[in-house]
């Protein structure tokens, strides 16, 4: 049987349209913001909470609600309705015969006022 080598490029009419990326400028991260907020979480649950105008951020263990509220309001220029904090202890995991522990973390669920929005996809 003869070897069949498919074409490496698609014919022009089937080629997908290439879209150029549009860069969105965000404010540079301040040192105080980096000390409080590590990064926004982009899990399936966090994506579902965005429908209710709630955004999830991983924060430092020493951060409190006031610090989180001030830094997010200042950095994203939004009005915050409330901040809820969850402290998650690290899970114990086995590695063969040995026990290990995943690191503990703290996350903040920030509820924004109606009409406010944060574009998480542009956040570094």
TrEMBL record:
GO molecular function: rRNA binding; structural constituent of ribosome
Keyword annotations of the record: Ribonucleoprotein, Ribosomal protein, RNA-binding, rRNA-binding
Pfam families, A to Z: Ribosomal_L23 (PF00276)
Statement: the UniProt record of this protein carries the keyword Signal: no
Superkingdom of source: Bacteria
InterPro entries: Nucleotide-bd_a/b_plait_sf (IPR012677), Ribosomal_uL23-like (IPR013025), Ribosomal_uL23/eL15/eS24_sf (IPR012678)
GO cellular component terms attached to this protein's record: ribonucleoprotein complex; ribosome
NCBIfam families referenced in this protein's UniProt entry, alphabetically: PRK05738.2-4 (NF004363)
Subunit structure, as described in the record: Part of the 50S ribosomal subunit. Contacts protein L29, and trigger factor when it is bound to the ribosome.
HAMAP family the record matches: Ribosomal_uL23_B
Similarity section: Belongs to the universal ribosomal protein uL23 family.
Task of the protein: One of the early assembly proteins it binds 23S rRNA. One of the proteins that surrounds the polypeptide exit tunnel on the outside of the ribosome. Forms the main docking site for trigger factor binding to the ribosome.
Name of the featured protein: Large ribosomal subunit protein uL23
Source organism of the structure: Candidatus Jorgensenbacteria bacterium CG11_big_fil_rev_8_21_14_0_20_38_23
């Amino acid at each position: 049987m003869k070897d069949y080598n498919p074409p490496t490029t698609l014919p022009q009419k089937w080629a997908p349209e290439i879209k150029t990326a549009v860069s969105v400028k965000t404010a540079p991260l301040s040192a105080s913001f980096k000390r409080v907020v590590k990064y926004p979480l982009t899990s399936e649950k966090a994506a579902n909470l965005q429908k209710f105008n709630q955004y999830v951020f991983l924060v430092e263990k020493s951060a409190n609600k006031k610090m989180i509220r001030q830094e997010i309001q200042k950095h994203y220029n939004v009005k915050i309705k409330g901040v809820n904090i969850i402290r998650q202890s690290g899970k114990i995991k086995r590695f063969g015969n040995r026990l290990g522990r995943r690191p503990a973390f703290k996350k903040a669920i920030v509820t924004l006022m109606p009409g406010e929005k944060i574009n998480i996809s542009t956040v570094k």
